[in-house]
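Internal ticket - ligand job 413, magnesium ion:
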Amino acid sequence: MGLIVQKYGGTSVGDVERIKNVAKKVAQYKAQGHGLVVVLSAMSGKTDELIKLAYQITDEPSERELDMLISTGERITIPLLAMALQSLGLKAVSLTGRQSGIFTDSMYTKARITKIAKENVQKYLHDDYIVVVAGFQGVDESSNVTTLGRGGSDTTAVALAVALSADKCEIYTDVDGVYTTDPNVVPQARRIERISYEEMLEMASLGAKVLQTRSVEFAAKYRMPVVVKSTFKDGPGTWVVEEEADMEKVAVSSVVYDKNQAKLTVVGVPDKPGIAAKIFNAIARAEINVDMIIQNVSVTALTDLSLTVPRAEAGKAMKLLESAANEIEAKSVMIDEEIGKVSIVGVGMRSHTGVAAKFFSLMADANINIEMISTSEIKVSCVIRKGDVDRAVRILHAGFHLGGGEPRVEQAH
Ligand code: ASP
Ligand code: MG
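stdout (structure tokens):
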């Protein structure tokens, strides 16, 4: 029998009863003879609670200390599951990020895994232990504790699956798969059976929260099959796999939205070479993820430049842009937090024409104003007013005929 890496999310381990439930599920897999590594999140809400504590102390907590603090959520769930497994008579051991050999760079709060020293985990697997690993955390070369960004336990799981050459990585969560859009906004949304890495990667980076973007990058790069399933309800889930021939049949496979972005505009930028480089270098050095960029060709000597960033990083980006604006003698920097982004994704866009045109027509018919546009081979994305997002999602989902199945049955939580 092979090796499986399973990950259980925050709601799956949200209280003691649920942890016992996870232990029972894990025990069943173990009984089938699989080697098992189980990666856990913190109890749902725990990481937010810890972040709040930090901000009760100071408005600008040191990121090193923040990581030290927020990594503790996972330290609570892993020994509890190990104990639950032991009380079922199984051999189990809990390991921190460090004890699992997960090394990262030093970019606190969004560190990247650089290396996995897998010997310790392998030793326990060899001795037939169920290895319970704290998700979301690692250490840098100087033994500082780091975290992998919100939702980072997914990445721990996929990276471990790759490092250990597991047969597959199973992500257990509170929904029974990846949907054509958020069922809370569109009750007719359908579970997708199989989706390509590329589409899932776009969906994750465009705001679908079911998998952390980096976990999909890992899976895609190393062709690790990932399945997203519900902890609370048996079912086939959604497989994230290599592209298959019939995936291109439909032009659009999902509608994704993101209400957690902000738009920053540098006003009155001198129109000359080297200016954009100065602006974006400032932001890149702080590792802030810029999403969309718009610059108009100027008719005067001045132009405006707008970009979008995750709202959580808008304050930091604003400061950097203000000092860059000063340096390049731009007039001012404006921030707009009332934006939202809607996107359609599908590998079928490669072979279907007129998809973007249809997107824009649907928005036009609904009188929704498009403020920024960005496209790739397999996506079209627009920035609109935040208040229009839900309506846009419903219109796109219906307009591209993504519904059809039974409305989703409510989950156990
Ligand atoms: N506990 C972390 C978070 O809430 C990591 C995770 O759950 O994947 O973001
Ligand atoms: Mg998650």
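Auto-summary: The radius of gyration is 23 Å. The longest helix spans residues 16-31.
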